[in-house]
Amino acid sequence: MKFKIKPYISKHSPTSEGLPTVYYVETVLACNLKCPECVIGVDAVTRTKKILKLEEFNIISNKIKPYAKLVLLHKWGEPLMNKNIFDMISTVSEYAHAHISTNGLLLNKRKCEELIKSGVGTLIISIDGMTQDVYEKYRIGGNVNIVLENLRYLKEFNSKFGNHTSILPQFIVFDHNYHEIDIFRKFCEELELRAIFKKPYIRFGNAKESFDKNFQREKFLDKESHYKAISTCPHLDSAMTITADGRLLVCAQDYNNDLYLGNILDEEATVKNLWMKEEYVNFRNLALKQKNPPEICVKRCMIYNPGY
User: Fold this and answer.
1) Reduced to 3 states, what is the DSSP secondary structure of residue 295?
2) Mean of the pLDDT values across residues 237-247?
3) Interatomic CA distance for residues 28 and 22, integer angstroms
4) Do 188 and 195 form a contact (C-beta atoms < 8 A)?
């Protein structure tokens, strides 16, 4: 079996027309876990829970296809809850790099093979602990042994079919799991996989950062440096975020869709006329050009944290 995976884009940049090349498509707004710092996990999302239908996805896919280089088929929720996710990945892989992030609990041996054969380019598997008591402190409702077994299957099938998928086991480092970092790293090395260690987003104070500053997110200590940092945000000028019901989000931080920017499922809607909508353009200009970002960027962003 041969695959032609489109290259992963590490640096986001718009098209020559100024249109986005990176698309987040929320295939599921729901989850099988209750992670305490996730807006889904603590039920902070007021939008109606939804699974994107295949026919809706096809409309979205056809509209973003001319511009997309990277499509992330997840945003808020567990993408494997969508029974059509493999078909969606396969469709996207024909014109862009297909990317998903999953907790890996809904896989089994058959589905691991199907996922690898779907043409997924990047596959993040979140495993934030190597023992059940540590793992379940954050991944509430999960079973670490299931995830580890599925990771082995994924590695097996990826090797069988040519290692076309970049499988990235991810460990979000908190205070409670810091002592298992080396165990996780060794486990990944034995599978010949690259371990990813991620700094946590602390939204609600239900989990604690590690004492190790290497795993703490930067906090900007004054308004000037904070606003300047926000003006470099790659998500604002080159990424479009589409919800499970077709609406646009400014970015992931606008998880309740407080700013309505239109719906790509509307018959007359196109990527261009939505992206160039006056309200959307003004929002981007405030943040990127005028360095006077809107409140959602200042107070809610987990990437550029205020520390003043």
Assistant:
1) helix
2) 95
3) 18
4) yes
